[in-house]
């Protein structure tokens, strides 16, 4: 049996919060947690347990590869605020600015030149804000 299937929801949440903090930063997670309301707390729990605790903790891809996938997906969907956040996360996960640039160039071919153009604008903003 897969040992991951033995984990409890509490373990997935704990693992998810650890990875979420490492990838997005303590400051980001602290803001999200302090901004939780009765209306949004179930969603915050959901993304921490499933996105971060189940998917980002899987052994099949390293964090650099996951970041590359996330950037491409966010460009495709046009989720620019999330994209900027994940550009910074990609740097924390070890992608270089040149690698991020290559991901954006690749997206021009497979998604569209206008999407990549917008991605470069948002990436430049995120890179200028990144403090390490």
From TrEMBL:
Listed name of the protein: 4-carboxymuconolactone decarboxylase
Source organism of this protein record: Kocuria marina subsp. indica
Signal peptide: none
Carboxymuconolactone decarboxylase-like domain mapped to chain residues: 42-124
The organism's place on the tree of life at top rank: Bacteria
Residue ranges of the TM segments: none
GO molecular function: peroxiredoxin activity
Coiled coil regions in record: none
InterPro entries reported for this sequence: 4CMD/NDH-1_regulator, AhpD-like, CMD-like
């Amino acid at each position: 049996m897969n040992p991951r299937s033995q984990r409890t929801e509490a373990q997935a949440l704990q693992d998810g919060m650890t990875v979420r903090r490492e990838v997005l930063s303590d400051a980001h997670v602290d803001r999200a947690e302090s901004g939780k309301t009765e209306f949004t707390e179930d969603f915050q729990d959901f993304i921490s347990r499933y996105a971060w605790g189940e998917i980002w903790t899987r052994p099949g891809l390293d964090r650099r590869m996951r970041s590359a996938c996330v950037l491409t997906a966010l460009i495709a969907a046009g989720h620019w605020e999330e994209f900027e956040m994940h550009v910074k996360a990609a740097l924390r996960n070890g992608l270089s600015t040149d690698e991020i640039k290559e991901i954006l160039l690749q997206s021009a071919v497979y998604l569209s030149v206008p999407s990549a153009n917008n991605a470069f604008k948002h990436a430049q903003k995120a890179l200028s804000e990144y403090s390490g």
